[in-house]
Write a structure and sequence with these properties.
Layout lengths: L1 H33 L48 H4 L8 E9 L13 E5 L2 E3 L1 E5 L5 E8 L5 H15 L7 E7 L3 E8 L2 H9 L11 H12 L5 E8 L10 H10 L4 E5 L1 H8 L3 H17 L12 H13 L2 E5 L10 E8 L9 E2 L5 E2 L1 E4 L3 E3 L4
């Protein structure tokens, strides 16, 4: 009898062990799935591990095309150098030319095609290799003169600079740099317009009266030289330079070699109305106008503070509506010499292009682009 019970107990124990083993085997795929692994077997790909995609936070804004005046969701992203985003390394001597076509009011004219453009390098027509009209993120530096001599007027211009932030899109980069004796990065490139506002808010009481504009431009151009895509420097300033290390001729050469348009917004007209116009104010106006011309930007000298919001809106629109052209020079010499550039608009038959509005009236237009470039030097 006892032998019989031992036999029954042994059978039950063996059955329990087998059941536990079968339960463990059945649970294995479920455990792997919980760990983010795909179970292997006849119905799976052997040797491949598939990971579940990370969930996107609901607070993360998704960039969508739309009106630039549309409110956007704000986040606090990391401060990332846009050079890592837009920089493109190439071994060819491709020359990029951003071209802006505006009417008499300064508003961009869209809808032009590659066949409408002709580019001349030292008078020789070039073949356009790259052409783009697509809206792209823009990278902008707000370069602010922070000097106590004219700060009362500069502060009025700075208040309206907040208007520019209303035209930012989620993918745009903006930095704030102030200058007096030396340039200072107040806010590095960021998508966060609240961070930009905080940087502008920090500019309250200047400690010096010096305005080393040329050195500040050189510093800012160096930071933006290798950034591709839509970009520009908006300079809120008087235009005076006290004792920069660089001379006017030296900074002009640097600007001619750069590929970043400069948009000076000067309070010079406000100053001259109150204190009169002298040789220094005339030199400042000429310098800012020349800087804008050679870089492919535009200089603004508003007479009234009410003009400033429209100016910032116009600059934002111009940066977005640029035509990007690229060509490989027919002259392959790498001698470091300066080449003059000229851009024309032509009709299909080669005659000068006529642009008409919806009423059929001919519209006068301006072509704004950089005036030249320096060839690579061997």
């Amino acid at each position: 009898m006892q032998a019989r019970w031992r036999k029954i107990s042994l059978t039950v124990a063996i059955a329990a062990v087998m059941a536990a083993a079968l339960w463990a085997i059945a649970s294995l795929p479920r455990a792997r799935a919980q760990n983010g692994q795909q179970p292997s077997g006849p119905g799976s790909q052997s040797g491949e591990t598939v990971y579940a995609p990370k969930k996107i936070s609901p607070s993360t804004p998704v960039p969508t095309p739309g009106n630039v005046n549309q409110p956007i969701q704000e986040t606090r992203p990391q401060k990332i150098n846009p050079k890592k985003v837009y920089t493109l390394s190439t071994s060819t001597n491709l020359v990029n030319v951003n071209v802006l076509v505006t009417d008499n009011n300064g508003d961009p004219i869209p809808g032009l095609q590659q066949s409408n453009f002709r580019v001349y390098d030292d008078g020789v027509q070039q073949s356009i290799a790259n052409f783009s009209t697509a809206a792209a993120p823009m990278t902008v530096t707000l370069l602010v003169e922070f000097s106590n001599k004219w700060w009362g007027y500069l502060y009025l211009a700075l208040e309206d600079a907040y208007q520019f932030l209303n035209f930012m899109r989620p993918q745009d980069w903006v930095a704030v740099v102030s200058f007096g004796m030396k340039p200072h990065i107040i806010q590095d490139f960021t998508h966060d317009r609240y961070a930009v506002k905080s940087a502008l808010d920090s500019l309250r009481i200047p400690g010096f009266s010096e305005t080393n504009l040329y050195d500040a431009l050189n510093f800012t151009l160096g930071r933006m030289q290798n950034i591709q895509g839509r970009k520009g420097i908006i300079v809120i300033c008087t235009g005076f330079d006290t004792f920069s290390k660089l001379t006017y001729g030296e900074i002009l050469k640097i600007i001619r070699a750069s590929n970043t348009p400069i948009y000076p917004v000067s309070i010079l007209s406000w100053v001259t109305v109150r204190y009169g116009s002298g040789i220094d104010s005339l030199q400042a106006r000429n310098a800012l106008t020349t800087f804008a011309k050679y870089s492919g930007g535009e200089a603004y000298f508003p007479r009234f503070s009410g003009q400033l919001p429209g100016i910032y809106q116009q600059i934002a629109g111009q940066l977005r509506q640029e035509y990007s052209l690229g060509f490989i020079p027919t002259n392959p010499a790498r001698n470091g010499k300066y080449h003059k550039l000229k851009v024309e608009l032509v009709a299909p038959d080669g005659s000068p292009l006529k642009i008409v509005n919806q009423k059929g009236k001919v519209v006068k237009y301006r072509i704004v682009s950089r005036q030249g470039y320096y060839a690579q030097k061997s």
